[in-house]
Amino acid sequence: MRFSASVLTLYPEMFPGALGMSLAGRALEAGAWSLETVRIRDFATDRHRTVDDTPAGGGAGMVMRADVLARAIDHAAPPSDPRPRLLMSPRGRPLTQRRVRELAAGPGAVILCGRFEGVDERLIEARQLEEVSIGDYILSGGEPAALVLLDAVVRLLPGVMGNELSGEEESFEGGLLEHPHYTRPQEFEGRPIPEVLTSGNHAKIAAWRRAQAEKLTRERRPDLIAPETATGN
């Protein structure tokens, strides 16, 4: 089963962007996954190809119209399409590595990139969109967020990463941030590689890495630490 992504956007020229390079780009070229862009404006019916209107009840900005977006979604994903329908939105549930793995194991995703003040709520309800956020900040549109989500997913697809273990020993995979990494030279500006890493004792190395991961997580992301996760104080 190949992962198939359909991105609904006002700016299809933003894709594949960074996804056309490095691991994701090589996988795209090799057919390990596919990317379709759908220009939302093509589904407007007036001569000005209008996709937004003023918010009901007043207020600043504009809101993306439900009818135009519904036609675009129905074109990209008819009711029989099993792919989840995602809306990149700052009010969505935070994207986690667990959700990324779930998406990577599935048939793909239909991703709507919002713009302006947001999307008509009726469209979200009628097309059962899953709102997804990549962080507690505001972007000019959902396109950069969609690129982030797809990059996170594609790298986990079978055969994309050269070393499959790379995806299992990273931040968030075990509920902790990743341990520090070192490589040559042996000493850099008076800072040597920690001795344990050159000891050849794999049990000690594993214990050191676990302790360092816990330390970093406690310092930077204590919200990730569960009582049963930590091995020390």
TrEMBL record:
What is this enzyme's catalytic activity, as reactions? guanosine(37) in tRNA + S-adenosyl-L-methionine = N(1)-methylguanosine(37) in tRNA + S-adenosyl-L-homocysteine + H(+)
A biological process term (GO) from this entry: methylation
* Main location as per UniProt: cytoplasm
* UniProt cross-references to CDD domains, sorted A to Z: TrmD-like
Name the EC number(s): 2.1.1.228
Segments carrying the region annotation (Disordered) are 213-233
Give the EC class as a word.
transferase
UniProt cross-references to InterPro entries, sorted A to Z:
Alpha/beta_knot_MTases, tRNA_m1G_MeTrfase_C_sf, tRNA_m1G_MeTrfase_TrmD, tRNA_m1G_MTases_N, tRNA_MeTrfase_TRMD/TRM10
Extract the GO molecular function terms from the UniProt entry. Answer: tRNA (guanine(37)-N1)-methyltransferase activity
> Which branch of life, at top level?
Bacteria
Protein family per UniProt: Belongs to the RNA methyltransferase TrmD family.
Q: What is the name of this protein?
A: tRNA (guanine-N(1)-)-methyltransferase
The gene is trmD
